[in-house]
Amino acid sequence: MTMHLSRRKLLLDTLFGAGMLGLRSLATGIPIAVLADPRKAAAQTVPGCSNPAAQYILLSSSVNGDPLNANVPGMYLIPDIAHPPAVTMAPAPLTLAGQAWTAATPWTQLPQAMLDRTCFFHHGTYTVVHPDLANVMSLQGFVSHHEMLVSLLSGQLASCLGTVQSQPLALGPRSAGEGLTVGGRPQPTLSPSALASLLSSPTGPLGQIQQIRDADLDRLNDWYRQNGNSAQRGFIDRYALSQQQARSISESLLSSLAAIKDNSAASQLSAALILFRMNVSPVVSIHLPFGGDNHTDNALTRETTETVASVGTIANLWNQLNANGLQDKVTFATLNVFGRTLSAAKGNGGGRTHHGDHHVAVLIGKPFKGGVVGGVEPGGGDYRATSINSVTGAAVGGGSGDVPFSETLSAMGKTLGVACGVSSEVLDLNIRGGKIVAGALAG
Questions:
Q1: What's the predicted TM-score (pTM) here?
Q2: What is the pairing mode between strands 359-364 and 371-373?
Q3: Contact present, 23 and 213 (Cβ < 8 Å)
Q4: 217: number of Cβ within 10 Å
């Protein structure tokens, strides 16, 4: 089906910016700032960045309040906590940075190299209401200026990474209430199938990448011959991609796009990595299901099926990151509206209900040390997240940790932010409460 021209232009402008600067940068290797203004060649073309190892962020979020929190490391120390009876979810040992833990079988099957940089961060979200996802994404209002955590981080990371846009992107389809906002303004959601349709045509932008490259290089060479100096001409010579490089980029991206047939979780993952490879945005949001709104999930069957599938998708992420040389450049994170009840009395047969006192953010990337931050303790007739020792990341029962239960969500947000390259000063200025948990970080 032919995409309507106005929608096609809107999507292209969203992905590549006015004048297709992002695509032209991809085609030539020349920074966007230089393409927009040739006089900037040989100058500082990328604004100052506090961390040259800044990360792209792939976020999985859910308005459903999935039971992801129930079966991760740290949840097998208390016999009363319920887990699915299926053999595919049986408890099994795993090692995180040399320390032994127990988790549901799917988590133990992640590659060890991935587990060594996987942090399971226990915290609260302080709500049991589905439409509150936007509030949770803003750390319950602790992020300033009506921002979500991901829009704050995206705006800070854009200059470091030189992306086309500073706003985060959401891939769908999405449930109502799962959209992203920037300064309170809703952002568009892009479906993987639409992305594939837009870019994969032989006459589409990726099919024309060599022609785009040649046209820009001719234009810049003419400009520098008339107006530039030797340093600027040398700058262009160093940055400009060859035709073979441009062809390889085009062929690789087109091959990845050809694998996208629908809007499934796997397709969202593939589309997100394509957007990172095209340097469109610092943050892309997808949805991986882990059991959904499973009040009536008899024998926790849906929880089992979706957890097995989504952890498998995370394992595939590791394979794709390595295949594309992005394993040290992309951090994966989860943030849902709330977790699910944990005790056997609430989990047997009939499923689980909403639980705002315990959620687990799974943080995977080079900046993280394999391990578990925080844990659970009895509270409210079930179990809730403990306070945390910010130095070690250890759970501290009785609320005596220097990160109190009420600030564990902010602490997770600050820890994710500093890990991905945002300065602690910016985070403290823009996020109230919480502390960076050093025990979660590598190095």
A1: 0.94
A2: unpaired
A3: no
A4: 18
